Amino acid sequence: MPDRTNVPFTPITGVRDRRYTIRYPFAADAELTDMQSGEKVEGVTSDISLGGCFICTSKALAVNSRARLKLTRKGQVLEALVIVRIVKARVGLGIEFFDLESPYNETLAGWIDTLRRTR
Question: Looking at per-residue confidence, does 107 or 4 come out higher?
Fold first, then answer.
């Protein structure tokens, strides 16, 4: 059996996980509009948290793009300004919310509260 006491420690490197809140499985229709180019991207969310969501779409915006997001689910609408944090080619976009106005903040909190109770 090899002696493991002399093996140097190698730290794991990579991208730090930026998630600060619990993500919940969640499906809503999503429409993103890039604030610089006006390009529109449509898709469906796969999960959501108080800090952002993941949108499944074959089209992509660039990382750090700022966009307007509109989520629609069961007649409820959430609109927010967002930043694209992660792009997975042909899979989707990781989105961070950075500006939610009061009525939409309440909508998001209601969705999350419902998801917490059903978990």
Answer: 107
Nearest alpha-carbon partner for 95 in 105, 83, 104, 81: 83
Quote the pTM value. 0.81
Specify the DSSP element, H or E, that contains 80.
strand 76-88
Can you list the domains of the chain with their CATH numbers?
24-118 (2.40.10.220)
H or E element at residue 104: helix 102-118
3-state secondary structure 8-69: CCCCCCCCCCCCCCCCEECCCEEEEEECCCCCEEEEEEEEECCCEEEEECCCCCCCCCEEEE
92: left (phi over 0), alpha (psi -120 to 50) or beta: left
For residue 43, how far is the Cα from the chain centroid? 12
